[in-house]
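User: Sequence recovery, please. Input:
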């Protein structure tokens, strides 16, 4: 019996290797990723990959960009945790 979930969790999957990160990036960002890896010293490589992993995940889900635009414009519909619990019937 395996402790692994039967199906991957919902949402963008986390790319693990440099090749997976590169594939997950939009084509327009791949050259910049390649250059960042090339310029990184060996001790910096894990940090650079971590940063680009986050960029690849964000780029795969355009909702984040829209939420940032809405927040900057003051039109993002956001709630405190207490408001969210009341709205969803989970308040204690």
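Assistant: Recovered sequence (92 residues):
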């Amino acid at each position: 019996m395996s402790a692994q979930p039967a199906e991957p969790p919902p949402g963008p999957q986390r790319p693990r290797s440099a090749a997976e990160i590169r594939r997950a990036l939009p084509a327009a960002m791949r050259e910049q990723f390649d250059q960042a890896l090339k310029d990184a010293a060996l001790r910096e490589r894990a940090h650079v990959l971590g940063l680009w992993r986050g960029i690849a995940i964000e780029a795969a889900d355009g909702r984040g960009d829209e939420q940032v635009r809405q927040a900057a414009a003051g039109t993002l519909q956001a709630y405190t945790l207490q408001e969210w619990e009341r709205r969803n019937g989970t308040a204690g």
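The chain has a mean pLDDT of 84.
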